[in-house]
Design a protein that fits this description.
About 15% of the residues lie in helices and about 35% in strands. It has about 160 residues and is α+β, with helices and mostly antiparallel strands. The chain has an 8-stranded mixed sheet with strand order 2-3-4-1-5-8-7-6, with helices on one face. Pfam families: Glyoxalase.
Length: about 160
């Protein structure tokens, strides 16, 4: 079952964790020094906040899926909607490993559709996304270039990316 995703940038992580824990009636399921995430069932949402020095507010919206097939289906729907779909395979982002598709709506809101395949010990694997030329986790999709080939692996050995 798909899950709606919201990612906010915050200035005060502790205050925001307190606020959202009270609002949602539960503690975050993931809590790090720069990040927190709630995997809520009512409403069914993956709600994340991070304090990484970005301007406060909505960073991006998204849809989390349970399989690669569902991710491919969402990619087709984004394509049909007229969005430039930017793949980011085997990304390490937000303490998770995921295959992603990035797009931007007509108003410039970034959309992340993703299938998480595991946990990671770091927020990013590196400064740049391994499968694209954009910044990991919240790339500027207007500056990214779609890959023309699908590589078996996006990362160099020992790069810390995959």
């Amino acid at each position: 079952m798909n899950r709606f995703h919201v990612h906010l940038n915050v200035n005060d992580l502790a205050a925001s964790i307190g606020f959202y824990s009270s609002l949602f009636g539960s503690a975050p399921t993931v809590r790090k020094d720069d990040y927190a995430k709630w995997m809520l069932e009512d409403p069914r949402v993956n709600f994340a906040i991070s304090a990484l020095g970005r301007p406060a507010g909505v960073d991006h919206l998204g849809i989390q899926v349970d399989s690669g097939d569902e991710l491919a289906s969402l990619g087709q729907r984004l394509d049909a909607a007229g969005a430039a779909v930017i793949p980011e395979d085997a990304a390490v982002c937000c303490y998770a490993r995921s295959d992603k598709l990035w797009a931007q709506d007509p108003q410039g809101t970034r959309w992340e559709t993703f299938h998480t395949v595991g946990e990671a010990t770091t927020y990013y694997a590196g400064d740049a996304a391994c499968a694209t030329d954009g910044q990991a986790c919240t790339p500027d999709v207007t500056r990214m270039k779609p890959r023309t080939e699908v590589a078996a692996s996006c990362c160099a050995p020992q790069s810390g990316c995959c």
